[in-house]
Each structure stands twice: as C-alpha cells, then as structure tokens.
Request: fold
Amino acid sequence: MNTRIEPFKAIAISELAHRLKAEGKPVIHMEFGQPSTGAPQAAIQTAHAVLDGDAMGYWESARLRERISRHYQERYGVEIAPDRVILTAGASPALLLSMLAGFEPGDRIVMARPGYVAYRNTARAVHLVPVEIDCGPETRFQLSAQMIEALDPVPAGIVITSPANPTGTILPPEELEAIAEICRERGIRIISDEIYHGLSYGMPAASVARFDDTAFIVNSFSKYYSMVGWRLGWVIAPTDKAELVRAYRGNLFLTPPSLSQHAALTAMDCESELDTHVETYRANRAALLEALPRMGLNSIAPPDGAFYIWADIGHLTDNSMAFCERLLRETFVAAAPGLDFDPVNGHRFMRLSFAVSTPQVREAISRLEPWFAALKK
Ligand SMILES: Cc1ncc(COP(=O)(O)O)c(C=O)c1O
Reply:
C-alpha cells in the first residue's frame, strides 16, 4: 500500500531552482508556500534568552496550550478547554494524529481535488482510503454541503481547508455551518485544516470550532506566524479523542521542540508585526491579479486568503511539470506544477506562491510578461 505514496513534485522544481541559484542565476522562489520573513523579532529574542538557561528536555508547554485556548476565545468566540489542545511539530503531524485517532483502517475519507498533496498520502499511510472529489470554479474549488449530502456511500470523514491550498479560497461561514450540519446528520467526522487562518484579504476565515465540537482542527505556526522551520503546530481534538491523540503523540513523537514552544508563546503576541506580512501579501496578490490576465492567464479564482494563485495553463500545455521546468530555466521564476495538488487535472495548472517580497513579485512579473507574450506567438 505504501508504494502509492507520492513525493512532492514541486521538490524537483525547487532542487533545480537551487542548482540554478548556485550557478549564480537570479532565481525567484515561488514554488513553495513559505514566508521568507522569519519569526517575529520578539520571538527570536525569547529564543536567545531561553537558550542560555533551559536544558531543553521533553516538554509540552501548558502556558502555550492555555494561550492557544485563549486565542480561540478572542478570535472566534469559542471556548476550547486547554486539555483539548495538543502541541505537535507542525500541522503535518497534527494531520497524521487526527487521521489515526479519528478513523479506523479502511475508512473512506473525502477531500477536495485540487487539494494539499499530503492529505491523500497521509490517509494512505495510515490505511485509510482517500476519496477525492473534483471541485471546480463553480464551488471555488471547495467541497460544498450539497456535495457532501450527495455522497454515496457515506464516508467516515472529510478534510476541509479554508483558506485552501492551492487556491486560497475561503468557505463562507454559512457554507461551513451547512457542512458541519450535514456531517452531523450523516455521522461524518470533520478534519478542518486551518493552517492559513490569519492570512485573508477580505472576510476572515471562520473556524469549524464555532459549529462542531466533534471535529479535529489542525493548525500551525508555519504560515501566519512565519515560523516554518521551527516545526510547531497543534491539533484541537474532540473531548472524547484528546487522550488518544496525546497517547499517539507521546508514542510517535514524544514532544514538540522546546525552544519553538517558548518562541511561539511570544509570537502569539506579535500580531502587529505579523500583520505587516499580510499587507505585503495583499500587495503581492493585487499585483499578480492585475498582471496575470495580461499574460493570458484569465482562468484564476482570486484567492481570499493564503498566499497562492492557482492558474489554468491548459491553453499552453498538457504537461505542467515540463512547463514549470521550462519556465524556471528561461525566466528563473520557480512555480509549482499542478500535479501535486490534482493528479487528474493538475497537468493543466500551476501554482504561484506570493509569500515573497513585493519587489520580487514585481521582478517576476517583469520576466513573465514577455515570456508568456512570446509563447502565444
Ligand atoms: C494545507 C496545508 N496543511 C498542512 C501543511 C503542513 O504544514 P506544517 O509546516 O505546519 O507541517 C501545509 C504546508 O504547506 C499546507 O499547505
């Protein structure tokens, strides 16, 4: 079964990008969704101070769990008991733990296609059966309550992501509530990946915590908090599953990194600095949404959040991997081939991440524009 686990195809593009960079080429990295900004200044200061005096043993910070619980109260108006918060080394283990604790081998778990590649592969790794549902522009590439109502047979679970990767689209609160309701009626357990919360350009994303206390909620310090390499995240487990998640976490991973937990506690009070990154992404998004149609890339769903643009390049290629490689070799702009996110239609899409600086986005546009113009001739 594990032979069906696929590698990230964007890694091959990234490796080529790094080789070209080592040769002195002016590469712009838009292939991965990672902020280039680093942790907030105060969080770094905390880390420096702690390094000198802490033995860094196995540890889960009770204060950080309480702070996360307070975050749900302040941001979403929802009470989450701190013992439902389980700290993990990023959203990736949080997702794994949710799948392990929430389901039995052989259970079917539904997810949107396009979607984040690790959903189907993590599900397979723990012997669940991923069922991908084609989601197009009509539902802004998201699962809808109507689709879930129509599922036959009824799956054991669904994964929802809002804002989504690779499209950045957000499920409006009414739709999220309708999804929670239909899942309750049909006995479907929700995993809600809320890793891009905090990164939105219009309405903020609602948390499924408002509508469903039986869901697993996955989140991380990798995106809004700009702490990718610190490897820290969390899962909010339903009350009846929290002990099981904690038992799995202990056996599989012991604890998350101590230094990161100290720094993250400080980072949670650095919103004014972190919001300046969101303003950068907002400017980058606007620049790309204005420029891409001029290049003939008209079929894009403007992202409500996250930092991605999912662009249809089907009029230019039926091989997004080869296309992204050529784009990189000729313009030194690295983009992710759509196949990572959609094994069926991804050959005609690419994803651009705008989690870079605004001057880099402008430079990328100035290279892409003539390149696409020449392609069309
Ligand atoms: C939708 C989604 N979920 C989870 C992850 C994993 O993030 P982490 O760095 O917290 O493990 C990513 C990473 O890009 C992602 O895009």
Observations:
- The pocket of pyridoxal-5'-phosphate is lined by residues 33, 90-92, 116, 161, 165, 193, 195, 220, 222, 228, 233 (CB under 6 Å).
- Residues 347 and 372 are 18 Å apart (CA to CA).
- The first helix runs from residue 9 to 22.
- The radius of gyration is 20 Å.
